[in-house]
Amino acid sequence: MEKGGIEVLDSQVLIRETDFSRLAHTWEELAEVMKSQGDETTPHKLIQLAAKTKRAELNIAFCGHFSAGKSTMINTLLGVNLLPSNPIPTSANVVKIRGGEKAARVFTMNSGVLTFDPDTEMEKLKQFAVDGDTVESVEVSYPGTFLDEYASLLDTPGIDSTDAAHKIATESALHLADVVIYMMDYNHVQAEENFNFTKTLKDRGKPVYLVVNMIDKHIDFELDFDSYKESVEEAFATWNIHPDGIFYTSLAEPDHSENMYAEFKGMLAQLITDREKLVGTSVRSAAEHLIDEHIQVVRTSQADQRQQWEAQLDGLEVEGIDSRHAAAVQEALEQEEATAAALEQRAEDARMQMEKELSVLLDNARLTYFSTNEAARSYLESRKPGFKVGLLFAGKKTEEERARREEALLVEFREKVAGNLDFHFKEWLGKQPQVFDLRSEEYHASVHATKIEITGEFLSKHIKEGAASDEYVLNYCADISSGMKLEYRRVGLSFIAQVVEMIKEHVRVESAAQGERLGVLREMAALHQKLAGLAAREEETKGRLLAIMRGGEQVA
User: Fold this and answer.
1) Is residue 546 part of a domain?
2) Which end of the chain is more exposed for a tag (fewer CB within 10 A), N or C?
3) Residue 294 falls within a domain, yes or no?
4) What is the pLDDT of residues 335-390, one digit of tens each?
5) How crowded is residue 501: how many other Cβ atoms within 10 Å of its Cβ?
């Protein structure tokens, strides 16, 4: 498709030279950030990736068993015996072969770049790699093959175990591979390292093609070849591995009826044709994976601190709680803090509850009736100025009458208070400690021994001068009722204060035991917060690197 005079093969693939250059600059920027965080390994891989990206170079990596015929396959594909039967030992574990001017270059740690003749000096190159400086990498260029200067084959060391497969997958230059060709000996297809290695590559998003070599070993009468192929596919599917293609080859018997060598070589040629599209997708995937590798480096750098805090967690114990389980610790802490807050609030809540119930009890207590009103009317009349009884001995009779009427009102009012308030008041107060799971015989006895006296002085102090109407009688009865309830409220509040003190003492004892558990939980939570901080740093770092990567892609 044409867009603005520029060929666009895929919305996610950019093929202009400037696009690849900008992406390469982004990988270099990522490398600088990683270096600043103390990573000494991943930035080098990103610089390698940047160099490959600038050239939009396609790398096809050949991996497989020592016995799978990998070197022979590469030599056959190239049409020239560039690779010796034994691998070239290098610390980088990879030999790159590409088209271009004939040369074999060894990149060393101390002696720079050394050049050999690939036709005559490959054994000399091998010897140098064994005895000379530390070799970083080997690159062979050779003209006249199906490769050009922008397409390379990567020859990786042979895999002889699961550990070796893992090492090559994680430590070699496979981050530079756009496509992986995994070769297996006909007799060793279902070896565990094959599944582990190819699954690792597929999980990294790399195209993987399987080559089952040496099919000339197949004995048809034991198992027909179609059934053999079916067993191979089923074995990989069992591991949830779905290769991009499977080729069955024989170099010893080129005319073997099941030989797919020609199809395999044709597929490689097509990959080279699609180079820019493949590279555009691959370098992004590789950069994302290198970001993950860097995060692992960050995680490793924090390992000692993490282990120290985890060891501290292991040393803390709270019954019923797994100290390593952050969510369980947090939930227990929240519950314990809620309990602590409830303990602190318990006394005040109890006070408010009891004061509210006392108010309801007093408000609902009826202390004056019609009989009370009549006794009050008679009493109030005797207190009016000019009240007089009889003619002879009037003074004495008047005082006696006043005393009689006062006593009548006292008896009436005391009876109503005793029946409608005092009994219920003491019954309610006496039960309050039990409401809060407390017990005090002394308190209970004190409540029931309490006496609130109703005296003539109490009655007289509520009289207002000049009050003589029927309405006032009602008001007076209301006043003595309110006055008496006020006395009961005062006494009730003093007993409530005693109950509150009992609750506070109980809370002090309970808080001492609860406080130890709370302290340990708070220590656990603080350690988990520190551990979460380490994880947050890793996530923040990853987010920052991905943002740089996405920003570079948008610019490109």
Assistant:
1) no
2) N
3) no
4) 888 888 888 888 899 999 999 999 999 999 999 999 999 999 999 999 888 888 86
5) 11
Both 76 and 220 in one domain: the answer is yes
Q: Are 299 and 536 in contact (CB under 8 A)?
A: no
Distance CA 13, CA 3 (A): 13
Instruction: Give the amino acid at 536.
Output: A
Q: Which residues contact 441 (CB under 8 A, 6 or more apart)?
A: none
Total count of residues recorded for the chain: 556
Which of the listed residues 217, 250, 277 is the one where a domain comes to its end?
277
In this prediction, the residues of the chain whose per-residue pLDDT falls under 50 are 1-15, 91, 131-132, 555-556
Q: CA 152, 197, 232, 211: dihedral to nearest 10 degrees?
A: 10
Look at residue 434 in the predicted model and tell me its pLDDT: 93
- Using one digit for the tens of pLDDT, what is the confidence trace for 236-264? 999 999 999 999 999 999 999 999 999 99
In a domain, 260, yes or no: yes
Residues 211 and 126 in one domain: yes
Indicate whether 199 and 339 sit together in one domain: no
pTM of the model: 0.64
Say if residue 273 is in the same domain as residue 330: no
In this structure, the answer to whether residues 520 and 426 fall within a common structural domain is: yes
- The pair of structure tokens assigned to 188 is 């060793």
Q: Looking at the domain assignment, is residue 288 inside a domain?
A: no
Check whether residue 161 and residue 81 sit in a common domain. yes
pLDDT for residue 11: 41
One-character DSSP codes across 164-212:
HHHHHHHHSGGGG-SEEEEEEEGGGTT-HHHHHHHHHHHHTT--EEEEE
> Which pLDDT belongs to residue 552?
64
Instruction: Answer yes or no: are the C-beta atoms of 495 and 429 closer than 8 Å.
Output: yes
Residue range of the domain that includes 202? 59-277
Contacts of 74 (CB under 8 A, 6+ apart): 62, 82, 83, 97, 153, 155
**Domain tally for the chain?**
2
